[in-house]
Amino acid sequence: MKIGILGGGQLARMLALAGYPLGLDFIILDPDANAGAAPLGEHLQGAYDDEELLAQLAGKADIVTYEFENVPAQVAAYLGAHTKVYPPANALAIAQDRLLEKNFFRQLDIGTAPYAQINSLADLEQAMPQIGYPAILKTRRLGYDGKGQALIQTPDELPAAWAAMQNAPAIIEGFVEFQREVSIIAARRPSGDICYYPLSENRHRGGILRIAECRGQDPLQPLAESYVKQLLEALDYVGVVALEMFDLNSRLLANEFAPRVHNSGHWSIEGAETSQFENHLRAILDLPLGSTQPRGLAAMVNFIGNPPQPEHVLALNDAHLHLYAKAARKGRKVAHATVRSDNPETYRAVLQKLTDLAAGLDDS
Ligand code: AMP
Q: Counting C-beta atoms within 10 Å of the first and last residue's C-beta, which end of the chain has fewer, N or C?
């Protein structure tokens, strides 16, 4: 069985690593000659909308999936017409556009920050009395890791914030003074079976995820599961999804969802009975989903900009290193490390050491 993946970065790499024990082969489309996942499968090197390469991908792969959500609609449509593609195109279309995404949450009765559609400075000036300060202006499309966003603290900052959008359609969101950020990862099979991972508690800086901790017994787990279940069923979804939320006084406000495996679930490689990568493959192949039971305490630390010296992570008991085979570049996720332990003291000590190590290498 051959799985096609659009995108050949670390997510594709970890999908392939999870797929080999299941006897799967991989074919990857990515424009970068040095794509991190390229050594793990056949590499089609070229643009994502290159019809000849898409035809090859659709011809050779039994099922196509992707590692990023900004797949051009015509590419998803082309692939969908020629082969099985999971997750479904409607999930991509919604997740690509922050306005459609927020409207979708609202339609499902899932809370969000107050928001409004913005197409001009006049729209922004008109919306602010309802939204309130501070607020964040975000481009509707193609934003990630805090890119395409402007924080607005006072009315005199409105023109500069709108100018920063460069006339791109945008939305304004009220700034949520959350206690914490959490995400839930879940997987659904075509038959309708769903599995849920324990919540991840996520710490961001500068809009980039730094640390994700598995929360084995979180009181908000049932609420998060009910939200993600609604989302999966409304989309007739197949594969892994990640729903990112703000915890505001034990209310969960949805920020966004990612129709793919997600950085906040990387701890599951060592920290859960079945990783999110394996469960994504099981789901798209309509195989039984694996247990998401946590294996003790687990967390993940991202390395941004520069990878660590392997020995600095490997010398720590209960720590695991994942290098992405990517060139060092400012602000780029180049590796992560996980800690998995049954002992709370060891867990905390190793997590602190990994956090310090990552902070020392972080150039963002
Ligand atoms: P996003 O690109 O929407 O994932 O935003 C990146 C990060 O910016 C989030 O993980 C939050 O830390 C922060 N952020 C985004 N939107 C809001 C908001 N409405 N209120 C507070 N923080 C936010």
A: N
